[in-house]
């Protein structure tokens, strides 16, 4: 059974950097894209970006200047950093798996990590 | 970016009802359309991929149809565990984009 679990601080101060990690269990990381997706309160889902097991990344252009993703396949983890956060970055952050085949969906997700940006 | 528009944004229905949710893309996306179910506190769940393929383990009362720019998700007979928010998502191109969600509530 594939499982993804987000972890990280629930509270981040404005202008600081948000850092989250997703731990993967139940399958190899090879052959998949590893994604971050967020849901601000009362709003829809926003795709943040993805990282492949090689380390190659694609970020949503709307967030690209502030986002960095990394991956450690030996630990079966991948991470998100978002710099210069504001209240608009307050959201439930999900990690999700996507097979590295064009057009494939997000087949497994974590339960989400709520991050509040506040002083 | 491709804009995804779902309708309705909310829906009240009774157990046993047939429910249809529509998703429209701002341009053609072939059949690269996926549907997810989300209940608070749980991981979102993939229901339908490639417009009409049922994900393994998902009950057959869920079905999807459509191609090009208009798609539907149908639940043939609502069950209590189906009360949730449903999202469509295009995987035709990057950045991936989602509909705004349809919240299905008990009538």
What would you note in describing this structure?
The complex is a heterodimer of chains A (119) and B (107). Chain A is mainly β and 119 residues long. Chain A is 0% helix and 53% strand. Chain A is built from no helices and eleven strands. Chain A has strands spanning 3-7, 11-12, 18-25, 32-39, 46-52, 57-59, 67-72, 77-82, 91-99, 106-109, 113-117. In chain A, the strands form two sheets. In chain A, strands 2, 4, 5, 6, 9, 10 and 11 form a seven-stranded mixed beta sheet that branches. A four-stranded antiparallel beta sheet of chain A has the order 1-3-8-7, with no helix packed on it. Chain A starts with a strand and ends with a strand. Chain B is mainly β. In chain B, a hairpin with a 6-residue loop joins strand 9 (85-90) and strand 10. Chain B is globular. The model of chain B has no long low-confidence stretch (mean pLDDT 97). Classes of the chains: A mainly beta (119), B mainly beta (107). Chains A and B meet through strand 5, strand 9 and strand 10 of A and strand 5 and strand 10 of B.
In a nutshell, what does this entry contain?
The complex is a heterodimer of chains A (119) and B (107). Helices cover 0% and strands 53% of the residues of chain A. Chain A has 119 residues and is an all-beta fold.
């Amino acid at each position: 059974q594939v499982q993804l679990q987000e972890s990280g601080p629930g509270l981040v101060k404005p202008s600081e950097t948000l850092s989250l990690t997703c731990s993967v269990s139940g399958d190899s990381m090879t052959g998949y894209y590893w994604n971050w997706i967020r849901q601000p309160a009362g709003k829809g889902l926003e795709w943040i970006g993805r990282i492949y097991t090689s380390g190659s990344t694609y970020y949503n252009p709307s967030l690209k200047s502030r986002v960095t993703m990394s991956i450690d396949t030996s630990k079966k983890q991948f991470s998100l950093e978002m710099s210069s956060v504001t209240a608009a970055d307050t959201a439930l952050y999900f990690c999700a798996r996507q097979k590295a085949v064009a057009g494939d969906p997000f087949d497994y997700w974590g339960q989400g990590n709520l991050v509040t940006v506040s002083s | 970016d491709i804009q995804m528009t779902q309708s309705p944004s909310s829906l009240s229905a009774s157990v046993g009802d047939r429910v249809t949710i529509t998703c429209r893309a701002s341009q053609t996306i072939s059949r690269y359309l996926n549907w997810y179910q989300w209940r608070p506190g749980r991981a979102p769940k993939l229901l339908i991929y490639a417009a009409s393929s049922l994900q393994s383990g998902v009950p057959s009362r869920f079905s999807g149809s459509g191609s090009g720019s208009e798609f539907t998700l149908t639940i043939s007979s609502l069950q209590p565990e189906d009360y949730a928010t449903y999202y469509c998502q295009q995987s035709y191109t990057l950045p991936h984009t989602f509909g705004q969600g349809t919240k299905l509530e008990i009538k």
